[in-house]
Specification:
This protein has about 120 residues and is an alpha/beta fold. It is built from 5 helices and 3 strands.
């Protein structure tokens, strides 16, 4: 039953992602992915950004697939979105293609210079 449901739901979900031009990681739950697509993810933080961000430069540290970067791009003049994970960065870059004020950066942000294993 679960496999049949998955075969029905996932193509519809993929179509929704294409229609709204926002792609999600396959790792989170379907609920979280739908919240990201429809702008209902972490609603308290989403409301805070909408209410308080006005112009200037914004940084999305650990941008994941770019939910906050895209949200902040509506209110900030420039957004830098940092994501070290290569799989998430590919999705982030795709999600930022049509948003020229977002600069995706495939790097981690830390208080010191160097390299670390990412897991």
């Amino acid at each position: 039953m679960r496999q049949i449901l998955k075969k029905i739901v996932m193509p519809v979900f993929t179509l929704i992602e294409r229609l709204v031009d926002f792609h999600t990681s396959p790792l989170p739950s379907l609920k979280q992915r739908l919240e990201e697509i429809f702008g209902r993810y972490e609603i308290g933080t989403t409301r805070f950004i909408k209410k308080n961000l006005r112009g200037g430069v914004a940084f999305d540290i650990g941008a994941n697939v770019g939910y906050y970067a895209r949200l902040m791009s509506r209110y900030a003049d420039r957004v830098y979105a940092f994501e070290p994970d290569p799989d998430n960065f590919k999705i982030l870059a795709e999600n930022c293609k049509r948003h020229p004020t977002i600069t995706p950066v495939n790097a981690a942000v830390c208080d010191r210079t160097g390299t670390v294993d990412f897991f």
